[in-house]
Amino acid sequence: MQGLETTLLEINRFGPPMLYRGDSGWRCSVDLSVSIAGVTFTVESDAHPTPYEAADTCFRRIHESLSKLGVNAGNLHALPA
Fold this sequence. Notes:
Elements: H1 4-12, E1 18-22, E2 25-34, E3 39-44, H2 51-68, E4 79-80
Antiparallel strand pairs: 1-2, 2-3, 2-4
Helix pairs in contact: 1-2
């Protein structure tokens, strides 16, 4: 299990993460622009009770989204939108 700081640094490879607390809990999001796929989109978590859970969900969703686009996230440094 990674810590919050490590997870945010991993997300930062794809764009600056936004971690914030709302009335319903912690959320994390990042705007991605994947030039090789020609798409720009936002990846975000649902509300979670802890900042780490929100960041971890966002990180996993980045990889899931890129996988659906046929992009290997391990070899990609996407540019922020």
